[in-house]
Design brief:
The chain has 227 residues and is an alpha+beta fold. It is 49% helix and 7% strand. The protein contains nine helices and four strands, in the order E-H-E-H-E-E-H-H-H-H-H-H-H. Strands 2-1-3-4 form a four-stranded mixed sheet, with helices on one face. It is globular. The N and C termini lie far apart (36 Å).
Amino acid sequence: MTIKLTYWSIRGLGEPIRHLLRYQNQEWEDNTPTTHREYISQRDQDDLPFGNLPFIQDGDKKITQSITIMRYLGRKFGLFPEYPEDLVFCEIVEQEIYDLRNRLTAACYDPYKRMGPFPGSEVGVFDHEYLKGSLRKRLTERVKKFDKTLTKTFLLGDSPVYVDFLLFEYLDQLRLFLPEAFEGSTNVLSYIVRFKELPNLKPWFESEEYNRGNYINAPHAVWNGKD
């Protein structure tokens, strides 16, 4: 059965989901809103009590929240940790990398700017360089911790679990934004390379579509990863 992913045509929060589906060789399709009205109509469906993007539809199930989607797919495809202590460790790593991704978002989107029907702030001041510098300091510290953690082929062992798909994608996004924070972190950089060699993912990473590049953040972001 085809899984439908509704999200913007950017890497953002959707790419870990796409990576996991590619890895599983699961039939899936992207459903991309093209207007604000279409986004609202899809987000506010009656069977999505806390509607947001991304969300997936798997048969009669609709699931929102990107982390919840990853956990759901991890259970569905046998990519969930077997032991409770491993699950706790995965959840720690999951939240740590998600925290860093949120800091990237905060540094790249001006919350005071007018967006479509939403008016901008008349008094708010967005300082991209300050926020980027703050993230650089934090990321440099945390990447060193990831380097001490990533001593196995993947997070828990020889095969990836659901959190590896989050971890790879968000490390890669952060690396593209602040490459200097990753200098000397050979375990992290090797992990990124190994992930790209996974069966069913290697063809994607070698494809023309991937190598043309895609937006990490939306095109209107101060840094979008492409322009």
